[in-house]
Amino acid sequence: MRLAASFYSALHERVRAELDRAGLDALLLDDPLDVAYLTGFSHFPNERPVAAYLPRDGAVLLLVPDLEREYAADQRAAADLVVYPEFPGERSPFAVLRDAVSTDPVRAGYAPSTSVGRAAGITSAFPDTAWVPTGLVGELRLRKTPEEIALHTEAARIADAMLAEGARLVGAAVGGAGDLPTETELAGHVTRYGAAMMYAEHDDVVVVPMLTGGLVYGGPNSAQPHRLPGGDRLRPGEPFMLSLGCAVGGRFVESERTFLLGEPTAQQRHYYEVVREAQQVGTEALRPGTRCVDANRACLDVIRRAGLGGYLRHRQGHGIGLGFHEPPWVADGDDTVLAPGMVLSSEPGVYVPGHAGYRISDTVLVTDDGPRRLTSYPRDLTDIVIGV
Question: Which residues belong to any copy of the Creatinase N-terminal domain (predicted)?
Answer without folding.
Answer: 13-141
